[in-house]
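Q: Please design a sequence for this.
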């Protein structure tokens, strides 16, 4: 694999940590700013909507720029957003910072587009899995450490730590990414034709559905786990770390399975497992071992869908990969935003322990869509 992919993975570790660290310290943010946990959870919604709407526009507006310049611009937004969040005295300023961070998250689809351009088709599943491995590792390293640091030194300390790491990431990109790195730039041309294609819409809708299912729960993962089992801050950090490790395994398995079995069969298995785990998780209340097993399988299934989903889209229109990945990122974060809203409503209605059941219908709808969108079998193919 090109060494550049390891750098992209490391930067995605920082971005993933910044994006999701809020979920592990949500109770601290709410207490400090005088908010309910559900209201503080809308920081995840602001980040998600920004990444869904503004980040693709940024990529398209800079489609003719050198790729390295756009990578650095994205990281500049991300650094500024973290600084604003750390200084936020109230919810509106916190949400503003999260919007800036969402613009910075355009780094991830841009890095994915460069990866697809650099790697031979037969190895793209593993290559994208490597790039997205950084996001998975953010759950293993960034989220537990951020949760621990936030509870030990205050939530602002955790956000400032991410800000410092983002500065180091920008310096690494400045030094490590060749100025001549090439990849197609996303643009507005062809966008209308793409979104009219039924197969493209089906894949994009699937992304929205399964991310809504996941983030209905994950936007409030700290309160959910503590509702299922009385965990102290150290136990919560270790649980989140193990969940992240399962995500790392799932990311690698998903990329390898895509290259061997194809995107659709891989996604069918992963989505079925995700649905089953969402149904089982509330039943593990008071049982730490069972809760952990369900959580780990959920992590493997959920994280493992990233590479197959991206490559499935890339295969639909290879010449328009940047636009497709931008659209997919939009649906990903619209799902994240929808999940945060559904989770907030669900927590108020049924409580945190039963919250996974609020996400299960979205996973079921995604599985039905996946089966319904399968191409018809040719006559005589049975048997």
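A: Design:
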């Amino acid at each position: 694999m090109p060494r550049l992919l390891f750098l992209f993975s490391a930067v995605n570790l920082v971005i993933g940590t910044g994006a999701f660290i809020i979920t592990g310290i949500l109770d601290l943010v709410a207490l400090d700013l005088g908010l309910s946990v559900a209201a503080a959870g809308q920081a995840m919604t602001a980040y998600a909507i920004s990444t869904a709407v503004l980040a693709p526009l940024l990529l398209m507006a800079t489609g003719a720029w050198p790729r390295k310049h756009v990578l650095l611009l994205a990281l500049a937004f991300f650094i500024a957003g973290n600084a604003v969040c750390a200084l936020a005295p109230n919810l509106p300023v916190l949400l503003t910072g999260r919007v800036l961070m969402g613009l910075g998250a355009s780094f991830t689809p841009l890095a994915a587009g460069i990866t697809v351009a650099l790697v031979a088709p037969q190895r793209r599943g593993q290559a994208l899995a490597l790039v997205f491995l950084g996001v998975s590792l953010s759950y293993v390293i960034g989220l537990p450490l951020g949760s621990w640091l936030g509870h030990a030194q205050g939530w602002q300390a955790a956000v400032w730590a991410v800000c410092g790491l983002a500065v180091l990431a920008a310096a690494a990109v400045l030094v490590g990414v060749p100025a001549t790195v090439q990849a197609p730039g996303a643009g507005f041309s062809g966008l209308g034709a793409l979104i009219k294609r039924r197969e493209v819409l089906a894949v994009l809708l699937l992304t929205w559905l399964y991310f809504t299912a996941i983030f209905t729960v994950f936007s409030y993962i700290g309160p959910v786990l503590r509702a299922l089992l009385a965990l102290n801050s150290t136990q919560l950090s270790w649980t989140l770390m193990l969940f992240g490790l399962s995500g790392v395994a799932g990311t690698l398995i998903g990329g390898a399975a895509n290259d061997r079995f194809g995107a659709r069969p891989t996604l069918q298995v992963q989505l079925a497992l995700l649905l089953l785990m969402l149904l089982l998780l509330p039943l593990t209340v008071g049982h730490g071992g069972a809760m952990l097993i369900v959580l780990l399988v959920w992590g493997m299934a959920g994280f493992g869908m990233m590479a197959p989903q991206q490559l499935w889209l890339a295969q639909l229109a290879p010449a328009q990969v940047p636009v497709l990945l931008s659209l997919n990122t939009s649906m990903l974060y619209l799902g994240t935003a929808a999940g945060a809203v559904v989770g907030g409503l669900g927590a108020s209605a049924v409580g945190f322990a039963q919250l996974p059941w609020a996400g299960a219908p979205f996973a079921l709808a995604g599985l039905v869509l996946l089966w319904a969108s399968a191409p018809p079998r040719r006559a005589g193919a049975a048997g």
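Q: Thanks. Anything notable?
A: Confidence is low (pLDDT under 50) at residues 378-383. The chain has 18 helices and no strands.
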